[in-house]
């Protein structure tokens, strides 16, 4: 294969989400103001900026306001500026309006947005400022200096390699992008963060990283929909279909153009190996409250993503020699407020301020980069996350125990009954199934318009991968799948994957079939596999979902 080119930069941002885009823009703003020449590059594995961005999303605009006070005048895409909340507990057939909504769930002053639209717009702003943006480039390896511990950049993956690893006629070697500072903003469960974590120990002495999986749709409602003319713009629910023993809940946000965003979030610490988050999402849509709102509608786009739910006690060390870690990669989502765009953006901006200090001191080692962690600790990110430090643990309690812990934390400003409350790794929580227990019947009455099956959902996510490439999902030991996992859990990968990537074929002998082209890049499989037998690696750059309005 041909030699790799090296492309030297001053600062490399890995990932085109809100944390890194805000960080790159702020770094450019600060360096221009100080007359510093800093060459900035940003790589994104999606085909375009925004194509892999999916979130609820209600955004607290405070970080964006700090970054660009005139963001509205500059054309920032906002779906709605008024948030009028409704909060329900759902039973299988009914609803109970919550008489009291905790203050952290109030959304006054927040904006309903599409994250894919917001990141696309931030990408345009960044490009106008002269930041080099490279979409379609997947970082596949972290580069280290001669000491083996200083991060000096990232290698991007080769393109045009066939499924046996041989170069095709379209072969293009990857590039070694080197930089004095590399900022990792890969989102939840990044594959480079996994490697950095192992090599540099940044997750040591922290509670385990935990996650939730969200399945989301944008639905177009008929023009005469009663919900469109109601004052409510935000609906949050808990209870059905997850009950009180599985963490999670539903959300519905009113967007522009007769559209709504509808989704269900499922905590990946669930213990029922037969649970299928996608089926739960369909059941959620079938609930009378939701079914009435979406009646006559049509699904325009669907997607799935995990979110980092651990927060304060799971945050890694935020710096290393030559590297900083931001946003969801550093577990900065505020699960209590169901928001992470603002904390992600602020972390990127604090990273930018630290990088300027490092360039001024001509020292990009931990000596200066550790200032970033101090900045995060003295910022409003820390204030928010500290108040919610035991929240994900409380939500993980079963039945009324959950209400007791959540209530205790509310009155004690996050301390609760035990502080810190322990967190169990998501891969360890499934209970062994009794012999002969079968998975529940699946939804059969999909109409292909408003109720769509998994494969139609994959189609509606715009997901596309080059078929002839090495499989990006590594199953470490197939014997585990066919024996231990089949007997103990009936292969939960076939259920927790929202893309129908894993299928167990029993005819002619048990066989696990993989459909990697369907992969939505949500990372649920690497997180939830009970034997930690699946490793998600980056497929060829440019592959994956193509979100534009979620
Ligand atoms: Fe998500 Fe893994 Fe399925 Fe891809 S294969 S959609 S990352 S669960």
Task: Provide the gyration radius in Å.
Answer: 23 Å
Task: Give the cofactors and ligands.
Answer: iron/sulfur cluster
Strand content: 15-25%
Mean pLDDT level:
96
* Largest sheet: number of strands, sense, barrel closure: 7 strands, mixed
Q: Taking strands numbered 1, 2, ... along the chain, how are they ordered across the largest sheet?
A: 6-5-16-17-18-15-19
Helical segment count: 15
For the terminal residues, how far apart are their CA atoms? Answer: 39 Å
* Structural class based on helices, strands and sheet pairing: alpha/beta
Q: Tell how many strands the DSSP assignment holds.
A: 25
Helix content: 25-40%
The dominant shape is: globular
Taking pLDDT < 50 over at least 5 consecutive residues as the criterion, the unreliable ranges are: none
Throw out a few tags for this protein.
550 residues; alpha/beta; 7-stranded mixed beta sheet; 6-stranded mixed beta sheet; 15 helices; 25 strands; 27% helix; globular; binds iron/sulfur cluster
Overview of the structural elements:
The protein has 550 residues and is of the alpha/beta class. Helices cover 27% and strands 22% of the residues. It is built from 15 helices and 25 strands. The protein has helices spanning 18-34, 62-67, 115-128, 191-200, 277-286, 288-294, 341-361, 366-377, 380-387, 391-395, 400-411, 454-460, 478-489, 493-496, 524-528; strands at 5-8, 11-14, 40-44, 58-59, 85-90, 95-97, 111-112, 132-135, 139-144, 151-156, 159-161, 167-172, 175-178, 181-184, 211-220, 234-239, 248-254, 259-267, 298-308, 319-320, 323-325, 473-475, 502-505, 511-514, 534-536. Strands 6-5-16-17-18-15-19 form a seven-stranded mixed β-sheet. Helix 1 (18-34) runs parallel beside helix 3 (115-128). The relative contact order is 0.16. Bound molecules: iron/sulfur cluster (SF4).
């Amino acid at each position: 294969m041909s030699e790799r080119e090296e492309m030297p930069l001053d600062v490399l941002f890995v990932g085109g989400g809100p944390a890194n885009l805000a960080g790159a823009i702020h770094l450019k703003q600060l360096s221009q103001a100080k007359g510093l020449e800093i060459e900035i590059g940003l790589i994104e594995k999606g085909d375009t900026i925004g194509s892999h961005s999916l979130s609820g999303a209600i955004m607290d605009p405070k970080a964006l306001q700090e970054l660009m006070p005139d963001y509205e005048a500059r054309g920032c895409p906002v779906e709605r500026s008024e948030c009028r909340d409704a909060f329900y507990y759902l039973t299988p057939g009914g609803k109970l309006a919550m008489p009291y909504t905790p203050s952290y769930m109030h959304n006054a002053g927040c904006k309903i947005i599409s994250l894919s639209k917001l990141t696309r717009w931030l990408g345009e702003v960044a490009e106008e400022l002269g930041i080099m943006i490279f979409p379609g480039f997947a970082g596949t390896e972290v580069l280290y200096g001669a000491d083996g511990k200083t991060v000096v950049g990232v290698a991007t993956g080769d393109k045009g390699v066939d499924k046996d690893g041989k170069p095709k006629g379209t072969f293009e070697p990857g590039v070694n992008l080197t930089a004095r500072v590399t900022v990792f903003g890969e989102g939840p469960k990044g594959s480079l963060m996994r490697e950095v974590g192992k090599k540099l120990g940044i997750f040591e002495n922290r509670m385990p990283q935990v996650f939730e999986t969200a399945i989301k749709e944008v639905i177009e409602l008929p023009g005469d929909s009663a919900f469109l003319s109601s004052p409510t713009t935000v609906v949050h629910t808990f209870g059905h279909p997850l009950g009180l023993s599985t963490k999670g809940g539903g959300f519905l946000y009113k967007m522009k153009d007769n559209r709504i965003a509808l989704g269900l979030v499922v905590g990946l610490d669930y213990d029922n190996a037969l649970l299928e988050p996608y089926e739960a999402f369909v059941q959620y849509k079938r609930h009378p409250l939701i079914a009435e709102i979406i009646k006559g509608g049509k699904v325009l786009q669907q997607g799935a993503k995990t979110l980092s739910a651990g927060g304060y006690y799971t945050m890694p060390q935020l710096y290393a020699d030559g590297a900083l870690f931001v946003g969801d990669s550093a577990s900065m989502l505020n699960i209590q407020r169901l928001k992470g765009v603002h904390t992600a953006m602020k972390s990127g901006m604090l990273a930018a301020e630290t990088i300027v200090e490092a360039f001024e001191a001509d020292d990009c080692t931990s000596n200066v980069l550790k200032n970033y962690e101090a900045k995060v600790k003295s910022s409003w990110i820390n204030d928010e996350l500290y108040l919610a430090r035991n929240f994900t643990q409380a939500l993980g309690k079963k039945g009324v125990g959950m209400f007791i812990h959540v209530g205790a934390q509310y009155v004690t400003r996050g301390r609760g009954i035990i502080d810190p409350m322990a967190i169990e790794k998501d891969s360890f929580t499934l209970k062994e199934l009794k012999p002969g227990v079968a998975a529940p019947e699946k939804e059969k009455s999909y109409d292909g318009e408003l109720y769509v099956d998994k494969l139609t959902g994959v189609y509606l996510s715009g997901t596309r991968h080059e078929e002839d490439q090495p499989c990006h999902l590594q199953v470490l030991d197939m014997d585990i799948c066919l024996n231990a996992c089949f007997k103990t859990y009936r292969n939960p990968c076939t259920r927790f994957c929202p893309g129908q990537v894993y299928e167990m074929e029993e005819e002619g002998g048990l066989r696990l079939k993989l459909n990697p082209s369907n992969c939505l890049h949500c990372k649920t499989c690497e997180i939830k596999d009970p034997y930690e037998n699946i490793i998600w690696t980056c497929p060829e750059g440019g592959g994956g979902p193509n979100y534009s309005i979620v």
